[in-house]
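Narrative of activities, Objective 1.

The group set out to show that a structural description can be obtained from nothing but a protein's sequence at a throughput compatible with the screening campaign. Below is one input-output pair from the validation batch, recorded exactly as produced.
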Amino acid sequence: MINGKLIKVCGMREAQNIREVEQLGVDMIGFIFYHKSPRCVSEMPQYMPTKAKRIGVFVNETKEMIQTMADRFDLEYIQLHGKESPSYCRSLQLKGLHLIKAFSISNEKDVLAAQAYEGYCDYYLFDTKSQQHGGSGNQFDWNLLKSYTGETPFLLSGGINLYSIKALKEFTAPKLIGFDLNSRFELAPGKKDIKRLESFLQQI
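Output recorded for this entry:
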């Protein structure tokens, strides 16, 4: 944790880049298994995290495929970024998988949708609503999260960058557990800018 917050860096593919990000002391590194994403992992990187937890990101995927990837990549959390139902989450939970459920936010109703998943996920992730299921680089109105009254801790995502630091320090929510960093810290899709990430971590 950095200053009491979990830091997750998502959308990684290259072995040396993964190693360098892990050495920064981040808590979680995300691997995207959604074929329409420019950051999709098609084969096992030659280096996988040994200290940071491995997160697999899926969109409306079959339970069988998720289980296969969880076993192959030794994933510690499954992040669901599609229209997966509470019962779907529960069935994965019963298989012993740890879950992060992402919610695309553009209004208060989107936040309230998380209520149906209470008890079925370890964490929620609140991201900006977009056509591509995340990674848009855009930020939503964090004030909408004032309507969140659930017990499940959440990660804040969506367009976070170096210029977000002041606002992040001022933003408070009882269940905010950490930040999810992705497209605003990239040199190219799937390749993270180590210097930019390091600067963020030092300032946050």
